[in-house]
Amino acid sequence: MAAALMANTLYSIGFVLEKRALTSLxxxxxxxxxxxxxxxxGSPLWIxxxxxxxxxxxxxxxxxxxxxxxxxxxxxxxxxxxxVLLSARLLGEETTGRERYAxxxxxxxxxxxxxxxDERADTVSQAAxxxxxxxxxxxxxxxGVWLYGSAERRARHRxxxxxxxxxxxxxxxxxxxxxxxxxxxxxxxxxxSGLGGAVVGLLKSPYPYLLLFTGAFGLVMSQAxxxxxxxxxxxxxxxxxxxxxxxxxxTLSFGEALPHxxxxxxxxxxxxxxxxxxLLSMPKHDQSPAQxxxxxxxxxxx
Length: 302
What we know:
This protein is an all-alpha fold. It has helices spanning 2-23, 33-41, 44-66, 69-76, 79-91, 97-115, 130-155, 166-189, 195-204, 207-228, 231-253, 262-281, 294-299.
């Protein structure tokens, strides 16, 4: 529990520091990854944020060795409250009423998932079949990259309304969901007896290579999206997708049984369905800036 709360704090601080650093940098793009890396690595504030996120990953390894996947996701998502508070305080971001209701519903949905847990019956799995992991992760990575590219193409339309970042958040959330499964797999490999056996077993698994892919693509995609959109919206969407992806597909992939009690099973399924429906109903565009009065337009010479 302490490691999970520490991971929440580190993630929230890391995202806010990176967002604050990106606001003072020139516009970055996934089409110029080398330029993006050069700009962010030249910012001490961004480096501090990335170090906080890396420390959060380390705390996440501890969590996955001691808690079931679904339980861990329920605790991780509680960090959204701290993130929204930090975004409002340090970034001056304000969420709309509709977005606050949506975030509240997401927290309620994931609380239902947490209530479906039973520490007496839930078990912490240690391994998953590699073909099954690849069957889950590879299509998810392809879907995330495709969705991000689709959002980029639509955003380049000249007269398109400003996006809130929901599509970006879902795309990056899929990549981070795969990364979360890979971290779970790494934690299972580290339980092997002896350092040499653990390293050999890790290198034979797909987990380090999935982490390399999601780390490289996730870094470029998340920074470009974070610069364009509000952290107080894109990060909660990304976190929700990551948590749902990991809780549902991770539970199935690693063989952690679903609740046998009908009430707990209903809570878990209903919570998952509610979170997905809220994501689909969230606004896709920010409100367009106020237009000048018609009279002012008529008096403006051509």
